[in-house]
Amino acid sequence: MAPVPLSPINVGHIDDVQELRKDRPSTIPDRYVRDMVERPTLDTVPLSSSLQIPIIDLSKLIKGNKDQSQSELLKLYSSCKDWGFFQVINHGIETSLLEAIEKVAMDFFMLPLEEKEKYPMAPGTVQGYGHAFVFSEDQKLDWCNMLALGVEPHYIRNPKLWPTKPAKLSETIEMYSSNIRKLCQNLLRFIAVSLSLIQDTFDEMFGVAVQAVRMNYYPPCSRPDLVLGLSPHSDGSAITVLQQGKGSSVGLQILKDNIWVPVQPVPNALVINIGDTLEVLTNGKYKSVEHRAVTHKENDRLSIVTFYAPSYEIELGPLPELVDENNPCMYRRYNHGEYSHYYITNKLQGKKTLDFAKIST
Ligand SMILES: O=C(O)CCC(=O)C(=O)O
Ligand SMILES: [Fe+2]
């Protein structure tokens, strides 16, 4: 009998972008060169303040006086409704912890390839080191290396994929993730209040929330005009917390009114975005927003991204409080685990994955 292939998915040969950069710095393999329509626009947007994503001061929401917290809540409402993205400052996470996670992530990416390849991301899966969301030999690739790990609940972890080097990686991820988890819970409470919902609405609904971390390393690229660091997509999460590495070049862009707007890093701030799951729960009042990453000619870039979502067994759909005759129900009910599976088994294509949930009109 013919041997059964290990995986039915054939992704073909994938050049590691860091090795390419070292050995053949001006080579861009064909698989990384985007078709004309997909090529990024770089530095085309004037950085006027009206095109900067909003900044939310969490300390004003938590312990500000009544006026301060009310006005910050209104700002949170318009940030979620009009942008789907904001940066949060005074979020309570120690700068030393933000620095520690960046250090272990960077130390990991700087290891020799053989060491990193001990934790391979199998085609069609989203944990380990490599390229996620690649399903065929002719699919274009992102100019990026990823290390992605399931964190909570524990049963989603694959311990074989947790690197043993650098030595502090695991304990730093644990500490970082538990801090980020509290931040997500806090933010979702204020997001609920901003929608006039009971503050524990999401906490009660989500069960033991699923949390995953993805570290993205984008080496410099001699032709940033030809490649993408990360393909346009919306996140499948309820909310996402994104930390931009200190000293990294500007790389994250969000699609706002059909313009790709770069997100300027603010020191020690965390970028928050609404994921597809919150779009469904809010019946489209707060929408997930398409975003992508671009590369830079001389500088590399690191981002550390946490996805926070309901437990897989949860059934969800638009909250009844957000459906009425003026806001008809736009999404069907479904099992969140099924959506997550659908999300990770399809390539990143803007907001296309959300068609899974949309009621066609
Ligand atoms: O690196 C970035 O800024 C974007 C990362 C991102 O969108 C993701 O990992 O889902
Ligand atoms: Fe994303």
UniProtKB/TrEMBL annotation:
It holds the Pfam family 2OG-FeII_Oxy. It comes from the Eukaryota. InterPro entries: DIOX_N, IPNS-like_FE2OG_OXY, IPNS-like_sf, Oxoglu/Fe-dep_dioxygenase_dom, Plant_2OG-oxidoreductases. It comes from Tetracentron sinense (Spur-leaf). Residues 201-310 form the Fe2OG dioxygenase domain. Signal peptide: none annotated. The lineage of its organism: Eukaryota, Viridiplantae, Streptophyta, Embryophyta, Tracheophyta. Belongs to the iron/ascorbate-dependent oxidoreductase family. PANTHER family: OXOGLUTARATE/IRON-DEPENDENT DIOXYGENASE (PTHR47991). One of its GO terms (molecular function) is oxidoreductase activity. This is Fe2OG dioxygenase domain-containing protein. Keywords: Iron, Metal-binding, Oxidoreductase.
